[in-house]
User: Which sequence fits this backbone?
């Protein structure tokens, strides 16, 4: 019993900042199970080996003596496992309680699973996909749901996993104490793209996090035109296209909107909203005559695509 009790203070472990960190509780809990089952396993296994050798039936030996019952032994082998199981049950309950109750001051984000990725919405209105940025030193509560089928959100480094269910909101919380990148996975088979349903948690120092948020918010208040300009710059479009009109690896953006253009296959089209939106998504389908097909496809949202078009119109 004493050997078991010494493990008790392992619960509600706090990290250096004094905040509750379920990672440590889970790890302690796991190690405790491991130690107890290993000791039991070793005890039973060694006893089986020892008994088999000691009481092996020898040549010419008859049946052994018939032994009936041993009250003391029976009490021991009932009471000891019972105590161990109650002890582990209480410990499990305590860890569960700690994990199920998100701290009041937690930073709360909404995460929505979809086939196949994760949409993240921050309290400030910022949105990201497959990238959950969080400030270090503050617990994070993740409100989970799903757009289509069952998914499960799993961050091994934080020892958390929870179902993402359409039409319902579940939650988990974790405490990022160290800046860094932590992989997140979908752990519920959800179709052919299941294994690609990866995300990462990026824990940032508070100042870096605030700076990142500031930058994101700037993007939110920009006009479509400004946003389009920023996208064209950020996505690296100008590596091939240019805005001055000289001939480079790709058709110049200058005057591109509304221009009649001959595609490979000698079809003439007019560069309009539909053409541009489609070309950003499926560049291979509409290569301009005289140019090699080198453009990657960009999965822009409808709004982003419109912003890019607004910007191209002005060139
Ligand atoms: Cu989503 Cu598997």
Assistant:
């Amino acid at each position: 019993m004493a050997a078991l009790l010494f493990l008790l203070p392992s619960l509600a472990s706090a990290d250096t900042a004094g905040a509750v960190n379920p990672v440590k509780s889970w790890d302690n809990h796991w190690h405790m199970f491991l130690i107890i089952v290993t000791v039991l396993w070793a005890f039973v296994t060694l006893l089986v080996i020892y008994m088999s050798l000691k009481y092996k039936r020898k040549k010419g030996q008859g049946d052994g003596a018939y032994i009936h019952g041993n009250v003391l032994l029976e009490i021991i082998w009932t009471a000891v496992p019972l105590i161990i199981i109650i002890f582990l049950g209480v410990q499990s309950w305590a860890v569960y309680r700690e994990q199920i109750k998100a701290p009041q001051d937690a930073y709360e984000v909404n995460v929505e699973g979809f086939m196949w990725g994760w949409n993240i919405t921050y309290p400030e209105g910022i949105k990201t996909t497959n990238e959950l940025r969080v400030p270090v030193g503050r617990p994070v509560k993740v409100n989970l749901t799903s757009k289509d089928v069952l998914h499960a959100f799993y961050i091994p480094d934080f020892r958390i996993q929870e179902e993402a269910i359409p039409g319902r909101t579940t939650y988990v919380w974790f405490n990022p104490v160290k800046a860094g990148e932590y992989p997140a996975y979908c752990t519920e088979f959800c179709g052919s793209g299941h294994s690609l349903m990866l995300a990462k948690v990026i824990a940032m120092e508070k100042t870096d996090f605030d700076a990142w948020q500031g930058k994101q918010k700037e993007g939110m208040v920009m006009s479509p035109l400004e946003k389009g300009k920023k996208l064209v710059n950020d996505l690296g479009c100008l590596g091939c296209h240019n805005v001055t009109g000289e001939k480079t690896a790709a058709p110049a953006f200058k005057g591109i909107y509304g221009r009649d253009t001959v595609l490979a296959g000698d079809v003439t089209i007019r560069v309009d909203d539909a053409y541009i939106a489609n070309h950003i998504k499926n560049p291979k389908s509409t290569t301009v005559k005289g140019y090699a097909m080198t453009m990657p496809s960009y999965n822009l949202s409808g709004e982003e695509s419109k912003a890019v078009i607004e910007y191209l119109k002005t060139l």
Residues 22-54 form the longest helix (33 residues). Confidence is low (pLDDT under 50) at residues 1-7, 9-18. The two ends are 80 Å apart (CA to CA). The longest strand covers residues 107-114.
